[in-house]
Fold these 2 entries.
Entry 1:
Amino acid sequence: ETGVTQTPRHLVMGMTNKKSLKCEQHLGHNAMYWYKQSAKKPLELMFVYSLEERVENNSVPSRFSPECPNSSHLFLHLHTLQPEDSALYLCASSQVYGKNYEQYFGPGTRLTVT
Amino acid sequence: RKEVEQDPGPFNVPEGATVAFNCTYSNSASQSFFWYRQDCRKEPKLLMSVYSSGNEDGRFTAQLNRASQYISLLIRDSKLSDSATYLCVVFGGMDSNYQLIWGAGTKLIIKP
């Protein structure tokens, strides 16, 4: 399935590195999301973009920096991460934000911070 | 109290059996409810929405009990391919800043 794609699928980085996660949706949706999924915990919403504007930032540390250049692309820039940031980072999109529309997820980037 | 609470399991169930699990939510003003399925090392995918009157999709039946603030998922004639983690999701509307609130999931293992 190619509705929502994410790259890279796996990433190992040191605490001093800078890297970026990329997400692309081919569904014509207007809302895109970054979630963090840690083992045995609920999905944590990090950022929401609606029509390319950030509408939600759920108290995420500044070492995570999102970018949404257009409605199809979403980035998550990472710098000086901590080991506790190791998790699965999922990108999702939905038709619009603020309604109970289904969210479509990408396969995720499994991040390990050493 | 967690906003959306699920028994983490795992539920170990023989193939062909019926299994049910519940999910409780804390916000009585919640508007919409869903079950997502997540296979091991894969992304979540919508399994079914949960309607007030209850709804069925093949072997799967979802129920909503607003008075007791829980939703349930029943799987009949379980298959090996039903093994996955089932995520309960609640949409609270304005009360939750229009975000989906996710449970941590219930792990289901179907054994041959």
Entry 2:
Amino acid sequence: NAGVTQTPKFQVLKTGQSMTLQCAQDMNHEYMSWYRQDPGMGLRLIHYSVGAGITDQGEVPNGYNVSRSTTEDFPLRLLSAAPSQTSVYFCASREPGTQQPQHFGDGTRLSIL
Amino acid sequence: GEDVEQSLFLSVREGDSSVINCTYTDSSSTYLYWYKQEPGAGLQLLTYIFSNMDMKQDQRLTVLLNKKDKHLSLRIADTQTGDSAIYFCAENPSNYQLIWGAGTKLIIKP
């Protein structure tokens, strides 16, 4: 089983460039989320989706857009990259229900110069 | 506000028990979780405990929950080199969000 697949694994951007981080899951999960992980900090929620066509903001949404046109895919767009967005980005999915575990991708390591 | 706190590092000798501690703030959280992150990988769920329990055991793992003090701990018995990782505590104050600690890096000494 592929689980949650993130691409690319690594990316270097210049300030002001835009790009899309891809996330796909093959478990038919309704819930999908994007987090960023910074040194010495817990995961911070950027955006999440509870189903196709439904998205909402998390804790740190500024500078990022998402869409959810299918159950499988949940891309994260950086509109105009800034050095403060240098981070490791994780996509996660899960079944509805608070006890259900999140399944994480392996992350995208993004550096903004 | 919501905050989950953990020590950033824990060093133990191989074969000893490791105890990783966490404090959380939202008493409405239904579940509390422990996730493990190995280098270069995403997070994997290790175990979770329902908020009306005070202990859960799963092989080498024991989770203790003190709701009064909002304190959660993860004990790993007979710590092995493969247990080297970062361990994250998380709580769920709502159905849609998890609040994460900063992670405790477990270092195993031979």
